[in-house]
């Protein structure tokens, strides 16, 4: 939290976007730092419904939408450009702590995992996808070396309806005993959650939306929790700041494309030991931040 607020460098009266409202932690910090207005996005209807109770402040505007649509939503409200955008990627503590949402492998609940509470659930995916697709998702999004064995066991146990059933399969296939530092179900739950919510595509679109929404000199702060997310943010800022490789010196110079839209790209920041002592979930968090240039927004894909 402290590192994010520092990266945002909030001045009195500025307008900031909290793209992942959750339980309102970043929004409260922005308002305490002097923001004149915070527009907070969340695709979870529970987060929006609870927002006025969590952060009762007239400077807060809550928007029930994906952060990938922030530019359009802000434009519709005549709020472009903004001074800062913050994204905290992945599942929120509020969602994780509610067993009925189906995100936790520690507590039994419906096999759901939908952040928006809409569309196909984790159970829908696991009970209809073929074995090869389930294995691909667990391998690619969870970096699980035994993905094929897990997929085979999941298909054999169908239909699955509870998180406890999926956790038990993971622990049986991968091996589990009391006192293990990391639950063997961790990577599989992460992978399926990412697939159900299309989280990586949402992050890519959200970064471009932030690029479009920020004013010259505006600040972007993004917190990620695993290497897939961090790699996307790193590559985005590398490309948008003009730091991508220029090509071989033995070949003719290539058109470098649009002017850099970000500068002052900071080195990644990890959670401090003091924070980890009170917030163990931050152990894998990485913060990357940058400052918007005055170059016009131009749609393009990261290299």
From TrEMBL:
Enzyme class: transferase
Organism (species): Sphingomonas kaistensis
Key words, A-Z: Cytoplasm, Methyltransferase, rRNA processing, S-adenosyl-L-methionine, Transferase
Family: Belongs to the methyltransferase superfamily. RsmH family.
Highest taxon of the lineage: Bacteria
Name under which the protein is recorded: Ribosomal RNA small subunit methyltransferase H
Residue sites binding S-adenosyl-L-methionine per the record: 24-26, 42, 67, 88, 95
Chain residue ranges for the region called Disordered: 283-303
